[in-house]
């Protein structure tokens, strides 16, 4: 949720306001409105604790004033993108853009979910067919020793393996 500059500044302590002003000044001097400094460096520049800088950054981020973009390298500092406080009309426009992006994302997600669901249904059906085929092949395999023993396999109704390793065949006359 975006607030006015006065409300956000009122929620900050004096040292947190110094952090805000430092980030704002440095970011506005950059073409991309970004700042790539560690919280330790900012605290050193301002002569305040790193915890205060961290608290200020978290408050500014939660109020939508800045965004933290994690660096890809551990040796680099995270990037702070300064958004500032747009006019209420811009905020409404930004919200509509975000809603449009969210709707687009939801539609993409639903399409992916539907495709995955269809693929799962296809695989379940294929699995059932394969299990049925395995059952048929096991039945044929159980009849194989009977055929070798000279029993007509077309007359076998059921086979039953016995504890001693032999197989009993139930045949019709």
Would you write up a description of this structure?
It comes from Bacillus subtilis. The chain has helices at residues 5-10, 14-28, 39-46, 50-62, 88-148, and strands at 34-35, 66-69, 79-82, 156-161, 167-171. It has 173 residues and is an alpha+beta fold. It folds into two domains: 5-85, Orthogonal Bundle (Arc Repressor Mutant, subunit A); 90-161. Strands 1-3-2 form a three-stranded antiparallel sheet. A two-stranded antiparallel sheet has the order 4-5. The chain is elongated. The chain starts with a helix and ends with a strand.
| Whole-angstrom Rg | 35 Å
In total, how many beta strands?
5
Query: Beta-strand percentage?
Result: 5-15%
Instruction: Supply the number of helical segments.
Output: 5
**H and E order:** HHEHHEEHEE
Task: Tell me the name of the CATH homologous superfamily of the largest domain.
Answer: Winged helix-like DNA-binding domain superfamily/Winged helix DNA-binding domain
CATH architecture of the largest domain: Orthogonal Bundle
Q: What count of structural domains?
A: 2
| Strand order, sheet with most strands | 1-3-2
Distance between the termini: 84 Å
Which of globular, elongated, flat, extended, rod-shaped describes the shape? elongated
Mean pLDDT across residues: 84
Biggest sheet architecture? 3 strands, antiparallel
User: Helical proportion?
Assistant: 55-70%
What is the CATH topology classification name of the largest domain?
Answer: Arc Repressor Mutant, subunit A
CATH domain class of the largest domain: Mainly Alpha
InterPro entries: Homeodomain-like_sf, WH-like_DNA-bd_sf
Coiled coil: 106-143
Protein name: Winged helix-turn-helix transcriptional regulator
Pfam families: HTH_24 (PF13412)
């Amino acid at each position: 949720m975006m607030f006015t500059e006065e409300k956000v500044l009122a929620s900050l302590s004096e040292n947190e306001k110094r952090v805000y002003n430092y980030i704002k000044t440095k970011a506005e001097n950059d073409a991309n409105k970004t700042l790539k400094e560690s919280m330790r460096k900012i605290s050193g520049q301002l002569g305040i604790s790193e915890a205060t800088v961290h608290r200020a950054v978290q408050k500014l981020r939660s109020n939508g004033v800045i965004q933290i973009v994690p660096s890809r390298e551990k040796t680099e500092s995270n990037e702070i993108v300064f958004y500032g406080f747009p006019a209420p009309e811009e905020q409404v426009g930004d919200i509509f853009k975000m809603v449009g992006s969210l709707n687009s994302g939801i539609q993409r997600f639903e399409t992916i979910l539907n495709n995955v669901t269809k693929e799962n249904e296809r695989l379940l059906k294929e699995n059932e067919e394969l299990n049925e085929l395995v059952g048929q092949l096991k039945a044929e395999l159980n009849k194989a020793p009977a055929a070798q023993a000279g029993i007509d396999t077309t007359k076998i109704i059921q086979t039953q393996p016995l504890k001693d390793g032999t197989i009993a065949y139930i045949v019709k006359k």
